[in-house]
Structure formats: C-alpha cells, structure tokens
C-alpha cells in the first residue's frame, strides 16, 4: 500500500508540474490560461474556430517564465466570424493565431485587445507572429481597431495586418493621460490599407495616442516595420503623443506618409520612404516642437506637386489660438543627414498651411537643415526648398544637390561634385553598420542581429511579418 501511495503521489506531482497543455475548446483555453502558472504553455488545438471569444487575466508570469498562449502549430489555428482575443495581467505571450473570414459584425469591438476590462490592462505582454487579414466590418463606416494596446511595456512583433478597409486605425496605442506607455511595435507587415469608407480621416495604419493625450510622454518605439500599399488616408502613421521614436521603418508604394500630428520631441531616424508611382506619396510632416528627422531616405515621392502637406518633408504653420486637436506651431525642427532621391520638388516645404484652416498663420520657429543630399539619377529640375512662410531663426549648412536643381536660399546649399550621385548607391546596401539609437541593442537585439543596423534600412516583404510565413 505504501508503495502504491508513493506511485500515486509521484504521478500527481508530474501532472501538477506539467507546463504544456493543449486545449480542445475555447472554454478550456480560457480556463487554463486564467489559472496557468509561470512558465506554463497553453496551446489551442489546430483547427477553425468561429465566433471565438478568447478572454483571460493572469499575473502569474515573470520576465524569465511568461505564461504562453498559442496555436498548437504556428498558423494552423484559424479564428473566424466575430472572433477576438482580450487579455490582462503581466508577462503573457500570445502567438501564432490567424484571424480570417470574419469581422463583419464586430462593430466597435477590437480584434486583439491588451485589456480584459476597462480597469484590467496588460503590462510586459507580447503579441507575436499573428495574422489579421480582411477582417472587416460589413458597414465600412463602422469604426473598429484591429489591435488596441493598453497598459505599459507591451510588444507587438512579427505580425501581418492585411487588407483593412473599414473605418478605424489598424493599430492604436491608447494612453492614460500623463502616464508613459513604453510600448514597442516592431517587425510587423502592414499590407494593403484601403479606404472602403471613402472618407478623409480615421484610417491610419498606426496611431499613438489621440488629441486628448497628445501631451503625454508616451515613449513608444515603432521600428523595423514595413508599410506597403497603405492608402487609407494621408497619415499612415499618426503621432499624437510625445517622446516617441520611429526607427528604420519602410514605407513602400503608399499614398501617405508619417505625420507628427500632435505632441512634441519625436525622433524619425533611419526610415526608408519609396513612393514608387503613387502620386500622393510623401515622407514626414512636422507639427509641434522638438521633432528631428535624421538619416532617412526619401525616394520616388510624388505628392509634393499635388498637395502642400505632401512634400518629402513638410513643416507646417501653426494655428492661432489652436484647440488641442488643431495645429500647434513648429519649433526647434531638425532635418539632417537625410537623402532625397528622384522625388518631385520641392523636397522640403516650410510654412505650409491649408486655406481651409482660417488663422493657420504662425510661422515655424528655429528650423535647421543640415548635411542633406538632394539627388537625381535622371534630369534634375525644380526647387529644392520652398518657403511659403519664412521661419524665424532659420539655419542651413552642408547641404548638396544635383546639377539642375535650384535653391533660392544659397547659404548652406551647394552643388554636388560631378558624379556625386554615386554615393547614393551605398545607402542601398548593408555593408556599414552605423548605430544611431543607443537603445537599439538592448531593446531590439534580435532584430539588429538578424537584419543589421544601418544608417537607414530597406525592409523587404520577406523580412517582416510572422516568422512561420517566412520559412
């Protein structure tokens, strides 16, 4: 009897300490995920699940031993209909799910949500290697978001977001006013963002904050993502908070660009903009204070001649007595060490404004344009710099341009030496690693080790999105 009791005790110990379990139903998954211990891995059995509501809260995970909830095999669990995932707690890792064939009646519900209720949010949690494709409301004007990030220190990485066409941004960072978020969004593939609603606002691929939280120091990092055919609206990314970093992202064949819409002190470093043949493609639009664009590559951008806001770099006027959702004046803007290649001119527009906005007349203050190259492999023509409203305290130095371009502001601009365009070619290669963001190796080591760390980075389609799709 004693020996039998020992065997039973040992069997129970093995069962209790087992960390891997495969759920056969959504109810089972939710129960096990809720009660999981640090290091546990809960799988959902391969298959198709319709109208699945995955929802749980768990704070048992630790940095070294997170609670993991994933597909039994990457990409083999399909969540269809009005399925969704919401979770809260700490150190949770959710991965490898595919959302498809659905979303028609989600209305305002978010597909993946870093909270389980208004009061229960996520921290130090990760969503990785997931897919959401064509998961749209039937009514295109219904507003919903595919990924809503709440809490702090969360990560969305290596996901594919494909063919969103209804109202609402693809991914939103929701901020608590005055509380830094410290989220990271990296190695994702934003593909085919359309405008099924046929409106001019509310169809961004990423939005960080909103006008109500625009003076919150969010400290988010958006790095090594690819945006392709993102034509939802003028703002592919809408920055609406402070102290965010946009690093080494690729914008390819998009009618839009990166807009620093609200907030201050944003870094745009090492991004690659290639508009291809899109006539409304542009680069970076400046609104607010303390923004810097450095080491970016602007190529084949054609929006400058069509709209004042769509130059490769546009620096806007401020709005007199602006409301919080209006246009704050530009102050202390830095544009340096960028390359502008074969874009429609002007490459940089200072003091742009909309005639529809009465009182948009406050000139930019303290603008520095330094060590940029404006080049063409074809027949160069047009003005490098257009000044609509002169900036107070304007400085320029070390800028060079191809023969054929013109610059009214002679000081700080000089013609490239003969054959100087050849130096542009080196920026299409990855031979020289130049780290410009000190936190890169600690925050994104896997990316920097795999892709490299260059002055600016072009990311191909097979370098982003779920790892299991790239094999």
Task: Give the topology, please.
Layout: H1 2-17, E1 20-23, H2 26-35, E2 41-44, E3 47-50, E4 53-58, E5 67-71, E6 77-81, E7 84-90, E8 92-95, E9 97-102, E10 112-113, E11 122-123, E12 126-128, E13 131-133, E14 147-149, E15 155-157, E16 160-164, E17 171-173, E18 184-186, E19 189-193, E20 206-208, E21 221-223, E22 226-230, E23 235-240, E24 245-247, E25 250-252, E26 257-262, E27 267-269, E28 272-274, E29 284-286, E30 292-294, E31 297-299, E32 313-316, E33 331-336, E34 339-341, E35 348-352, E36 365-370, E37 373-375, E38 382-383, E39 385-387, E40 392-397, E41 399-401, E42 405-406, E43 413-415, H3 440-443, H4 445-451
Parallel strand pairs: 1-2, 2-5, 3-6, 4-7, 5-8, 6-9, 7-10, 7-11, 8-12, 9-13, 10-14, 12-15, 13-16, 14-17, 15-18, 16-19, 17-20, 18-21, 19-22, 20-23, 21-24, 22-25, 23-26, 24-27, 25-28, 26-29, 27-30, 28-31, 29-32, 30-33, 31-34, 32-35, 33-36, 34-37, 35-39, 36-40, 37-41, 38-42, 41-43
Distance from first to last alpha carbon: 54 Å
Average pLDDT, rounded to a whole number, is 90
Number of strands: 43
Low-confidence stretches: 1-18, 427-444
- What quaternary form is this? single chain
Question: How would the global form be characterised?
Answer: elongated
**Secondary structure category:** mainly beta
Please report which band the strand proportion falls in: under 5%, 5-15%, 15-25%, 25-35%, 35-45% or over 45%. Answer: 35-45%
Provide keyphrases for this structure:
8% helix; 14-stranded parallel β-sheet; 4 helices; 471 residues; mainly beta
């Amino acid at each position: 009897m004693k020996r039998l009791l020992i065997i039973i005790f040992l069997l129970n110990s093995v069962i209790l300490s087992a960390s891997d379990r495969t759920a056969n139903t959504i109810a089972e998954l939710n129960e096990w995920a809720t009660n999981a211990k640090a290091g546990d891995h809960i799988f959902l059995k391969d298959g198709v699940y319709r109208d699945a509501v995955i929802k749980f809260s768990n704070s048992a995970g630790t940095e070294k031993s997170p609670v993991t909830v994933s597909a039994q095999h990457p990409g083999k669990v399909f969540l269809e209909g009005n399925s969704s995932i919401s979770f809260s707690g700490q150190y949770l890792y959710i991965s490898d799910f595919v959302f498809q064939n659905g979303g028609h009646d989600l209305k305002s519900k978010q597909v993946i949500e870093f909270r389980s209720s208004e009061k229960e949010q996520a921290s130090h949690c990760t969503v990785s290697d997931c897919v959401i494709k064509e998961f749209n409301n039937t009514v295109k004007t219904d507003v919903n978001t595919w990924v809503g990030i709440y809490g702090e220190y969360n990560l969305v990485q290596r996901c594919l977001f494909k063919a969103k066409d209804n109202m609402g941004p693809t991914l939103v960072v929701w901020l608590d006013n005055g509380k830094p978020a410290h989220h990271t969004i990296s190695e994702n593939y934003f593909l085919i963002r359309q405008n099924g609603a046929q409106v001019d606002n509310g169809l961004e691929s990423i939005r960080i904050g909103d006008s109500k939280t625009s003076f919150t120091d969010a400290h988010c990092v958006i790095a090594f993502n690819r945006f392709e055919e993102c034509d939802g609206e003028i703002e592919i990314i809408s920055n609406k908070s402070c102290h965010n970093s946009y690093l080494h992202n690729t914008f390819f064949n998009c009618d839009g660009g990166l807009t620093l819409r609200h907030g201050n002190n944003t870094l745009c470093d090492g991004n690659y903009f290639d508009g291809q043949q899109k006539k409304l493609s542009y680069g970076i639009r400046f609104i607010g204070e303390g923004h810097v664009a450095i080491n970016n590559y602007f190529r084949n951008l054609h929006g400058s001649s069509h709209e004042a806001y769509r130059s490769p770099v546009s620096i806007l006027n401020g709005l007199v007595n602006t409301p919080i959702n209006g246009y704050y004046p530009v102050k202390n803007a830095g544009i340096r060490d960028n390359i502008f290649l074969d874009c429609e001119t002007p490459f940089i527009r200072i003091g742009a404004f909309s005639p529809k906005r009465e009182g948009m007349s406050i000139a930019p203050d303290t603008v520095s344009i330094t060590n940029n190259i404006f080049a063409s492999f074809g027949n160069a023509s047009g003005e490098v710099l257009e000044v609509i409203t002169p900036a107070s305290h304007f400085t320029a130095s070390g800028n060079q341009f191809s023969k054929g371009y013109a610059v009214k502001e002679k000081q700080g601009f000089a013609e490239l030496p003969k054959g100087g365009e050849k130096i542009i070619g080196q920026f299409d290669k990855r031979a020289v690693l130049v780290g410009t963001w000190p936190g890169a190796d600690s925050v994104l080591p896997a990316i920097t080790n795999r892709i490299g760390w260059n002055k600016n980075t072009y990311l191909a389609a097979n370098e982003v999105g779920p790892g299991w799709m790239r094999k």
